[in-house]
């Protein structure tokens, strides 16, 4: 299947038999090209949705896959058919080592020219170096879609560079677009709701809620109105094994993931323009990671050693239970007070954060001038590969609609 790839001068392509429908769609100029960097849990689910949902493969043409080791291309002359294919083996056996990002850009610009279609890069990694490259992708005319929070919550200089290049707000522009729905609340419409509220002239007064799917799952299991009979460390292990956590669970338990989401949202609120967090580290954050584990480099070792600290988590839980409350990890952006923070709080059993959540649910309340009597609430699963991929694929559909 892969026999002729070694003859290609620079990168490998996988010529596979095309069904008439696939052949027709590859030769048409409609839709956009999609280059996927990162094919782990979320990336795999993105590919699954792109290749199996009716109608998507004729709008969203996968032209490249790249992980940290390999790259696999599809070109107009040698199309890659991923539907029903064992693409993991194809990628693993590709003769092309993972391209440096500047080289990847050059190849994608060539594919863009040859296909006559706009190209979007999807970053499904959690890599800071890939995130730091977004301005270069955009400068090369490539759109960016990502669930990776690093660029939007990292140094403010990188964020401002991205703003310089993206043309989302320029009506009729054919410039590159940036969509990032899954950076907050996975596929839940959090970024789009906030940007719609702002674009239509509403004023945001406060955003608060449970922003971490992992910490929601953990505390929904650990701290219930009836008390808790499960070990904190067992719950974390299950969350990691089921893809709710970040690749390293410390990114969740340290509160960094919530702090990143708060930085991302607060940067979208015009009233906070003068008080923007310079990075997620400037958001006051309560860490749940035991001090001796703070520097453990591997996620596996972190989970392995967490049982040493179960008694400490039990103590916190019992204190809340004795007050008739439960523990929940929440984030708040109080626009009026100019206060942004991520912290572990206690809530009475009747509070919506205590009573209405289950699994990896997020609940986010937008308090605004229009929604002043009762906040606009968005609730649902906020972590997991499928719901995260849904946000990514929906963003790609938006780009295809604007750029086809
Ligand atoms: N899981 C979830 O519920 C949610 C995840 N997200 C975000 O989605 C992103 C992906 O998460 P997830 O799929 O769980 O992570 P995984 O660890 O499962 O996958 C990461 C992928 O990125 C690849 N990768 C890492 N660094 C590079 C690099 N420099 N160049 C190319 N490929 C690279 C890895 O390749 P290799 O295997 O070769 O190392 C792997 O394919 C993260 O940013 C996460 O924060 C957002 C919302 C929810
Ligand atoms: N680890 C994150 C995944 C989505 O951002 C979370 O738990 O919310
Ligand atoms: Na979202």
From TrEMBL:
Pfam families from the UniProt entry: Homoserine_dh (PF00742), NAD_binding_3 (PF03447)
Origin organism lineage: Eukaryota, Fungi, Dikarya, Basidiomycota, Ustilaginomycotina
Protein name: Homoserine dehydrogenase
Entry keyword set: Amino-acid biosynthesis, Methionine biosynthesis, NADP, Oxidoreductase, Threonine biosynthesis
Keyword NADP: yes
Family that this chain belongs to: Belongs to the homoserine dehydrogenase family.
One Gene Ontology MF term: NADP binding
Coiled coil: none
Swiss-Prot/TrEMBL catalytic activity: L-homoserine + NADP(+) = L-aspartate 4-semialdehyde + NADPH + H(+)
Task performed by this protein: Catalyzes the conversion of L-aspartate-beta-semialdehyde (L-Asa) to L-homoserine (L-Hse), the third step in the biosynthesis of amino acids that derive from aspartate (the aspartate family of amino acids), including methioinine and threonine, the latter of which is a precursor to isoleucine; production of homoserine leads to a branch-point in the pathway as it can either be O-phosphorylated for processing to threonine, or O-acylated for processing to methionine.
InterPro entries registered for this protein in UniProt: Asp/hSer_DH_NAD-bd (IPR005106), Bifunc_Aspkin/hSer_DH (IPR011147), HDH_cat (IPR001342), HDH_short (IPR022697), NAD(P)-bd_dom_sf (IPR036291)
């Amino acid at each position: 299947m892969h026999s002729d790839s070694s003859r290609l001068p620079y990168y490998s392509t996988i010529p596979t038999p095309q069904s008439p429908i696939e052949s027709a769609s590859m030769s048409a100029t409609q839709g956009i090209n999609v280059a996927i960097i990162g094919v782990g849990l979320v990336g795999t689910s993105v590919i699954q949705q792109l290749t199996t949902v009716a109608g998507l493969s004729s709008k969203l043409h996968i032209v490249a896959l790249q992980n940290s080791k390999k790259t696999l291309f599809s070109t107009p002359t040698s199309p890659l058919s991923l539907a029903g294919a064992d693409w993991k083996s194809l990628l693993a056996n590709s003769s092309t080592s993972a391209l440096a990002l500047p080289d990847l850009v050059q190849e994608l610009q060539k594919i863009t020219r040859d296909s006559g279609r706009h190209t979007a890069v999807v970053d499904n990694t959690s890599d800071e170096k890939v995130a730091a490259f977004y301005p270069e992708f955009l400068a090369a005319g490539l759109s960016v879609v990502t669930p990776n929070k690093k660029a939007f919550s990292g140094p403010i200089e990188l964020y401002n560079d991205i703003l310089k290049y993206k043309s989302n707000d320029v009506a009729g522009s054919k410039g590159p677009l940036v969509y990032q729905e899954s950076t907050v609340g996975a596929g839940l419409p959090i970024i789009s709701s906030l940007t719609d509220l702002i674009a239509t002239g509403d004023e945001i007064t406060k955003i608060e809620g449970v922003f971490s799917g992992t910490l929601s799952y953990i505390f929904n299991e650990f701290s219930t109105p009836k008390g808790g009979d499960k070990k904190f460390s067992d719950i974390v292990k299950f969350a990691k094994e089921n893809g709710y956590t970040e690749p390293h669970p410390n990114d969740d338990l340290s509160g960094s993931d919530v702090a990143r989401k708060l930085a991302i949202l607060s940067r979208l609120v015009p009233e906070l323009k003068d008080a923007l967090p310079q990075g997620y580290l400037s958001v006051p954050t309560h860490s749940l990671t035991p001090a001796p584990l703070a520097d453990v480099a591997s996620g596996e070792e972190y989970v392995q050693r967490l049982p040493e600290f179960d008694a400490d988590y039990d103590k916190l839980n019992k204190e809340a239970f004795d007050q008739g409350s439960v523990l929940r990890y929440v984030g708040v952006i109080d626009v009026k007070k100019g206060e942004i923070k991520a912290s572990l709080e206690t809530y009475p059993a009747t509070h919506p954060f205590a009573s209405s959540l289950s699994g990896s649910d997020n609940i986010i309340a937008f308090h605004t001038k229009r929604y002043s009597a009762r906040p606009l609430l968005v609730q649902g699963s906020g972590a997991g590969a499928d719901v995260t991929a849904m946000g990514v694929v929906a963003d790609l559909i938006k780009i295809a609609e604007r750029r086809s």
